[in-house]
What does this fold into?
Amino acid sequence: MMLSDESRVLAGILLLSLVTVETGGLYLLRIVRGGERVTPFQEKFARAGHAHAGVLLLLALICQLLADSTTQTGFFDWLSRAGVAVAALLMPGGFFFSSMGAGREKPNRLIALVLAGGALLAASLISLGVGLLTA
It folds into this structure.
């Protein structure tokens, strides 16, 4: 199987990005071992952010293979190829940034990043699904 240049480059970036998720796992270990002072809310959001980052980056890698099997061009090609990768930044970022701050018990306004990432994720998956069905 040969990857397009676009898929090859983005897949390389995504694989390197997974290393940051790995280091985030070390932070989570510090939290669950009591080495970081966080509220139960912050621990839940740290777990959610970490999980979403890892899963969405892996899904974005899979999307590279599938996007090469479509005949999409322009915006829909970008959406199918890169949308999940951008959602992998927005959604975890929303969990992390909305829970930052000593003693925080509920999310701040940056929780909107989670919703924006979810909308982009849905649009990307619809675009890729339609692209595969119509290829």
